[in-house]
Amino acid sequence: MTPKISDTLAGNAFAAGEASAPDLMRAIIATATDAIIAVDPEQRIVLFNPAAEAMFRCSAAQALGQPLGRFLPPGLRAAHHRHVVAFAATGDTARAMSHLRPLVALRANGEEFPIEATISRVEIAGQIYAASILRDITLRHQHDAALQHQAELLDLADDAIFSWEWEGQIIYWNRGAERLYGYTREEAIGQNGHALLRTRFPKGIETVLSTLQREGTWEGELTHTSRDGRESIVAARLKRVDDAAEERLVVLEIARDLTAWKAVEAAETQSRQREAIAQAAATAAASARDHLREILDALQSGVMLMSEMDTRIEFANAAMRELIFGSRRCRSTPPAYGRDFTFARYDGIELSPNERPAARAFAGKRVEHQQLLLRRPDGTTQPVEVFATVLATGDAGPGRAVISVHDLSRLVQAEQFKDDFLLLVSHELRTPLTAIHGGASLLLNKPHLDADDRRELLRDVVAESERLERLLSNLLLVTEVVGGRLRVSTEPVPIAPLARTIAKELADRNPNHTFLVAAGPKLAIAEADPSLVEEILRNLYENAVKYSPCGGMIRTEIEEAADRAVIRVRDEGIGIAPEHVASVFERFRRVGGDPHVRGMGLGLYLSLALAEAQQGEISASSPGVGLGATFTVTLPAAHDRDLFATQP
What we know:
This protein is α+β, with helices and mostly antiparallel strands. It has 18 helices and 23 strands. The strands form five sheets. Strands 12-11-16-15-14-13 form a six-stranded antiparallel beta sheet.
């Protein structure tokens, strides 16, 4: 068996203590900070220590047995192979031990890096092995490059920068010093700087050196004489530098000709002034832009700034984002036409590129009051009215168009409401008017009716008049809700007393129904508008009576839970089919009821709108047809309860 190369090296290196020599050598190889690699006569790696693993980012298990060329750039492998072959044969190399030579190596990840390498021959069992010690000099190269870069930067400086030993001998001289004093670097280095420049110190050189010795720095004005005899008063800054490596004190001196310095200072002052003016202008522009954005975001109509024929949107205000995304929140990027929305005609056909508002505006056409559908990716649409105009630009850049988009939903709803109203009002208003007119005509034309008949007719006239008044009141409230004109003025409202008052009023007019109001021990007080709460209760009671044509119990349960006042109105009427529960609050909609039940379908719609206007909610539930229904209203509980006693 061929002995391990590390064991053989250990045996050769130690004449005494043969038993411990291999272990010691292995320990040295394993803990060496330099990479150690050995190759056999075929130049395959047989030794790869931990430092080599770290240097080449490759484990020993992956490296052993591999050709050494794996860790060399492809362009160097052939030459290096020939060099190692020649070295194995002759022992002659420029990279002998103690003579580090720079090379380029290759890490396992393909990264090239500089190294220093030495090589030696080891004969084991008649075989010649080559062992290399390698050192990563990346940091040294970076350090040398940094020093070179710093020197180059110092040469770029307008100031004279030079350094001298404590006794005055110049050891560094930059290009700025050459320009200021007229001496080249070769002429200045090695000279006594004080004598060369005939330096005049304000209080003598001893005072300056004493300050440097004590404080490390000195600043002041010095007088220097240039090569041509010109005297220059310079602003000098001297700093003591302790050069531990050379065991000497060095002074770094930076000198600036005051004439040039003043010119630079004036330029810097002007630059700062220009920067301040530019910054102020930028701040003003940003403020104006932000103010304009605030104004545009406050508009109720959508506004977009579009370019490149509707394909790119540079800005969309809050109303436009709400039209597209359903929210006014700001997004990191503006919406994109085709991705987030498109425009279509009212028949649903999407606009061709030439029909789009911006394209028409770019073509010089007037785009005003164009009624379109704004279509979202989920298929939902919004009726809109679009205006477009091209902005005048003073350059030859791409044109920009301002697109104004008005939401027509309320207008469409109002039109629909008007149509629905006209369809229903003729029927619903005609019924009570017919009853009132008929009763009044009988009373007028038949004066000899007995008292009971007259009383019955008068009761019908009064009942139908009250019904007509309620109908008109609901219509008025609906128009205020639809038009956004409903005013809400909240105050603490005790629910139970109000419910009992309205229930008694309805019970007097509807003797076939029994009204019961049950309240918990804690008085439920809502923060609400009392007139709107009364309207909600009245509509719910009338709805319960209407859909309980055979009479029965109408029970109201009132409680306060989790900072909410809760009202439940239960009836024993005809109930609601499960598929109709979700649509009972739609306007002009009556579902699951008797076709002979009178009404315009406004009561529940209005109750929902009034509850939501007071930050409340309303919901409906029913076990099924014929099993009655329950309507639940929740309103915010009042915080100020001091004026009300506990419910008995």
